[in-house]
Every structure is written in C-alpha cells, then in structure tokens.
Amino acid sequence: MRKKVLGICFGHQVLCRALGGKVGKAYTGWDIGLRKVRIVKDFSPCAFLDSLDEIPPALSIIECHQDEVWEVPVGAEVIAFSDKTRVEMFIIGDHILGIQGHPEYTKDILNNLIDRLLTNDSIEKGFAEDVKSKLQLAEPDRKCWQRMCKMFLNGR
Question: Which intervals hold domain Glutamine amidotransferase (predicted)?
Fold first, then answer.
C-alpha cells in the first residue's frame, strides 16, 4: 500500500530532491507575497486530478521561499506554475503531491514572517513594504487549496 505524501514549501523541495529531482536558489530571488498559480489541465489522468474540474484554472496562494524546484524527479508531472516559479506543484502517480506555496498560511502569518526576515536583514525594507502593501489588495484562495489538499489526501 502506498501512503499519500503531501509536501508543502520546503516539503515540496525535499520530496523533489529525495526522489532524484533538482532544487536550488530561485534564479529570480525571494518569492514572498500572494502569487497567482496556474493549473495545467493536460496531464495524465489519475483519481485526484479528475476532480480538479471543480478548481478554477488559476488560484492565489501565499508564497515565502528563496529556493525552488529546478527539475522534477523522473515520473513526476508539473501540474501548476506561476510567472515566478516554474514548478509550483508536481505529482507522482496518485500518492505524492508537492506544493511550493503555503495553502495553510494567512496574511497575518506572512506579515509576521516578513517582519522577521526584515529584522534579520534577509530582505530589504522597501521590498518588505511593497509586499505588505500588495498583500492588502487581495486574498489567497485558501478554501480552494484546502479542498484540493483534502481531495488528494482522501484519494478523490
């Protein structure tokens, strides 16, 4: 029996690397804020993916990462991407799913992380202020992400 494995952010990267893919620093630097992720609709069928017709073609998710997947493992399919990150989601069969963003994060969580990154000089003040102001203008699609994760973990 194959257990379901869902990797979020660093977990997405660890899954990829452990299974033979490549991970490294994002070529474009930090990805922090709300990102529009586009779902790929022409991938191999499996039970979880068949249910994705209910999911909009693009979803907003909170991102906070400096590393990213460069190359997925053999047998993996990229099922979502964004303007900044080429591999936002990948799947292997019906039992492994990686998501680069944070479906579980609220805007408050991200604002606190931004403050900590600013305090330890990981990001610049202007960048932090820009991200925070943009974050006020939109909401992540948390309910859709939650539904998608549950569909995957429950096998439907």
Answer: 4-107
Q: Are 97 and 6 in contact (CB under 8 A)?
A: yes
CA distance 59 to 103: 10
First to last CA, the chain: 17
Phi and psi torsions of 34, nearest 5°: -95, 125
Give CA–CA dist 92/78, Å, rounded: 9
Query: Of 9, 12, 16, 88, which residue is the catalytic one?
Result: 9
Q: Which residues pair with 80 in a beta bridge?
A: 39, 89
31 strand-pairing partners: 65
Domain map of the chain by residue range? 5-154
From the candidates 46, 77, 95, 104, which is the catalytic residue? Answer: 104
CA distance 1 to 94: 12
Both tokens of residue 90? Answer: 């990948």
Please confirm, yes or no, whether 9 is among the known catalytic residues: yes
Residue numbers in the chain where pLDDT is lower than 50: none
Q: What is the CATH number that goes with domain 5-154?
A: 3.40.50.880
pLDDT at position 56? 82
**Integer Cα distance of 13 and 15 in angstroms:** 5
Strand partners, 69: 23
